Amino acid sequence: MAKYLLLKHYRGAPAAVNDVPMDQWKPEEISAHMQYMQDFADRLEGTGEFVDGQALAPEGAWVRYDGEGRPPVTDGPFAETKDLIAGWMVIDVDSYERAVELAGELSAAPGAGGKPIHEWLEVRPFLGAAPCITE
Amino acid sequence: MDEALLRSLTPSVLTILVRRGADFAAAEDAVQEALVEAVRVWPAEQPRDPKGWLVTVAWRKFLDGARADTARRRREGLVDEEPAPGPAPAVDDTLQLYFLCAHPSLTPSSAVALTLRAVGGLTTRQIAQAYLVPEATMAQRISRAKRTVSGVRFDRPGDVATVLRVLYLVFNEGYSGDVDLAAEAIRLTRQLAAQVDHPEVAGLLALMLLHHARRAARTAPDGSLVPLAEQDRGRWDTGSIAEGVAILQAALARDRLGEFQAQAAIAALHADAPTAEETDWVQIVEWYDELARLTDSPVVRLNRAVAVGEADGPRAGLAALAALDDALPRHTAVAAYLHERDGDLTTAARLYAEAARKAPDLAERDHLTRQAARLNARRSR
Question: Predicted confidence band at A78 (pLDDT cuts at 50, 70, 90)?
Fold first, then answer.
């Protein structure tokens, strides 16, 4: 009964095994990939383990406070060096092992040639606010 | 509208339906529908016999469901042969329900969800809110759990230990959403204790009461953790403490020690001390020895090291700690505390910061970060 974040990256993760950019896939391969993700989410809702999932656009900016009375600074021309999160899924599972098992399944989503992408997904536990019973 | 009454009636109404031949999953659905109906109707006029009312409505819902479901014609035949519902029996045999909802074939999270719904009478929405998951997800978790146990015979006694574990999990979840799970766990454990004469049930109830009694003092208004030694003991609930201690003493007198009684004994020694300095750490160490013997849990040994540090000084605590695997959760935090007590502030500050990075929850991480910051500020002065 712990929540984990599965993070999918556009950039910043180690290279996938089947590392072909998505725009080089056949349209039906893209559809198969999307369907796999949707089925995965549906199945987790069925097992009572799904919490949330969202995709993120690749365009993002670093933003910083620039002092009293000034507009915030944005990072401008260096965006291509950033790690980029492509999307996330939040799951609520009984163990860390289960979280890793599910991340492994998600990483097997089909890519170019209908073969699994073997992409790297990041698995991060949530910090809860569980009261400490032992003192 | 008495929601507490409604919830307390849930398990016995469900048990009556199952006794009359409804299968568990369908009966559970029917009871939930009856509860919803009660919430709608009762504010205008509460029935004189609330339990009888619920049984009648739930049974009607069950029959409607069974009739509407053409694939279940066979059961419909069975239902028609049943005598018409009479008055609700006065005997409460909901104990079976506790066993069923804590059945070993369920995962811990499923057992917790099913217990809260079938025994606790909470709605799926309330349970989903309490565990911060979508209602659809919780609904699926509960219906899978119901399917898992639907083949389990209802008339066999189960293992009290599994029930206690589930109630303990509920208690530890604490508070989020509009349902206080700690209070709910206490209520369910109280009901269980009224039905089953077992010193460990009493032990768990005492443990929960003793912990709950100190809850108000455990966090500052800004949500940060207040360590035991710094808690305002005037904010402890003395009524709960007295009740917990009395229940524990009666349980211990029966001389069938278990881990919950031992944990409750430790909590009672903390709760009994008028000031942190007057805590009987020597006796606490002895209870941790008992607990270690009963559970052989590394977490217990870690807590024991803290107690040894208080009873025999930080060096003794560090020696006890050195015997344990440093990968244990909170090992680093304990080491930091003992080094601070021993006067080695540099090491303590470093270890507090390291422990904060490994902390399993937010309040604890922030607390440990503050400890590191406090020591660092003192050293740089």
Answer: low
Looking up residue A3, the CATH number of its domain turns out to be 3.30.70.1060
* pLDDT at A132 exceeding the cut of 60: no
Q: Which of A1, A129, A130 sits opposite B109 (nearest CB)?
A: A1
Instruction: Measure the N-to-C terminal CA separation of chain B; round to a whole number of Å.
Output: 60
How far apart are alpha carbons B299 and B281 in whole angstroms?
18
- Contact assessment for residue B360 and residue B225, using Cβ atoms and an 8 Å cutoff: no
pLDDT of residue B78: 58
Whole-number average pLDDT of chain A: 89
Rounded CA separation B272/A125 (Å): 37
Range of the domain at A45: 1-54+84-123
Q: What angle do CA B287, B291, B293 make, to 5 degrees?
A: 115
ipTM exceeding 0.85, yes/no:
no
Global pTM exceeds 0.90: no
On whether any CB of chain A is under 8 Å from the CB of B350, the answer is no
Is B174's CB within 8 Å of A129's CB? yes
Residue A66 lies in a domain: no
CB contact under 8 A, A47 and B140: yes
How big is the CA angle at B355 (ends B350 and B359), to the nearest 5 degrees?
155
Q: Say yes or no for a CB contact (<8 Å) between B362 and A92.
A: no
Which residue positions in chain B have pLDDT lower than 50? Answer: 83, 90
Q: Please provide the distance, in angstroms rounded to a whole number, between the alpha carbons at the two ends of chain A.
A: 22
B198 touches chain A (CB under 8 A): no
CA distance A38 to B32: 31
Tokens linked to B266: 């430790």
Sort residue B49 into left (φ over 0), alpha (ψ -120 to 50) or beta: beta
Question: Can you read off the two tokens belonging to residue B106?
Answer: 């369920």
Digit-coded pLDDT (tens) for B90-140: 455 788 899 999 999 999 999 999 999 999 999 999 999 999 899 999 999
Domain contains A9: yes
- Helix, strand, coil share (%) of chain B residues, nearest 5: 70, 0, 25
3-state secondary structure at position A88: strand
pLDDT of residue A134: 47
Report the run of H or E that residue A27 belongs to, with start and end. Answer: helix A27-47
Find all residues with CB under 8 Å of B130, minimum gap 6, and list them.
B116, B122, B173, B176, B177, B179, B181
pLDDT tens sequence across B171-211: 988 765 678 999 999 999 999 999 899 999 999 999 999 99
Domain count, chain A: 1
Taking the C-alpha atoms of residue B307 and residue A52, their distance in angstroms, rounded to an integer, is 42
**CA dist., res. B141 & res. B159, Å (int):** 23
A77: in domain: no
Give SS3 for B335: helix
Across the interface, do B107 and A94 touch by the CB < 8 Å criterion?
A: yes
For residue A13, being part of any structural domain is answered with yes
